[in-house]
């Protein structure tokens, strides 16, 4: 009796798996993508589970915006990553998370949100109104940028919109975070 080598066994298993996936691939893909869409959750749920938005989720919670961003939407969120928050001047994030700065924090966070669901491929150059009330400048000259912050991960789907991760925290006109440190 001939004994199969591990490599031969692995090759046979791979062929069998490819054959089975070819037979069932069409239906399985439709079921998977439908269940992924249903399982995606709200913007807050997706951000909480993503692993690189812990600071954003903490800030959204401190600003009492969880319910809003878990609402029907749709919203497009230009979400600063944890690294973007870490790049703020020392002490600024801690100051923003204080209860007395809740209004300023909410203003900054809602400046990162646009009404509607805008996928990266649909972004055009120009100014766009934010939920905060001011405008942000979108550019597609070298990838997608928002007020100079680069979109580092686009089109993260949520049940009530889409998240585009950015590499900086953008500030609305009139917000001077340095003043928070002087209090």
Task: Describe the 3D structure.
- With 183 residues, the protein is α+β, with helices and mostly antiparallel strands.
- The protein has two domains: 1-39; 43-181, FAS1 domain (Roll), CATH 2.30.180.10.
- It is 43% helix and 20% strand.
- The protein is built from eight helices and seven strands, in the order ααααβαααββββββα.
- It has helices at residues 6-39, 43-50, 54-62, 66-69, 82-86, 92-96, 102-110, 178-181, and strands at 75-80, 113-115, 126-129, 135-139, 145-146, 149-158, 161-166.
- It has a seven-stranded mixed β-sheet with strand order 2-1-7-6-5-4-3.
- A hairpin with a 2-residue loop joins strand 6 (149-158) and strand 7.
Note the main attributes of this structure.
disordered N terminus; FAS1 domain; globular; alpha+beta; 7-stranded mixed sheet; 8 helices; 20% strand; 43% helix; 183 residues
How are the SSEs ordered, and which strands pair?
Elements: H1 6-39, H2 43-50, H3 54-62, H4 66-69, E1 75-80, H5 82-86, H6 92-96, H7 102-110, E2 113-115, E3 126-129, E4 135-139, E5 145-146, E6 149-158, E7 161-166, H8 178-181
Parallel strand pairs: 1-7
Antiparallel strand pairs: 1-2, 3-4, 4-5, 5-6, 6-7
Helix pairs in contact: 2-3
Q: Could you name the ranges where pLDDT drops below 50 across 5 or more consecutive residues?
A: 1-39
The name of the CATH superfamily of the largest domain reads FAS1 domain
CATH C-level label of the largest domain? Mainly Beta
Give me the side-by-side strand order of the main sheet.
2-1-7-6-5-4-3
How many helical stretches?
Answer: 8
CATH architecture of the largest domain: Roll
Q: Largest sheet, if any?
A: 7 strands, mixed
Q: What is the name of the CATH topology of the largest domain?
A: FAS1 domain
- Secondary-structure element sequence? HHHHEHHHEEEEEEH
**Radius of gyration in whole Å, from Cα?**
22 Å
- The overall strand count is 7
Helix content: 40-55%
The fraction of residues in strands falls at 15-25%
Shape: globular
Number of domains: 2
Return the structural class.
alpha+beta
Mean pLDDT: 81
Question: Kindly, what is the distance between the CA atoms of the first and last residues, rounded to a whole number of angstroms?
Answer: 83 Å
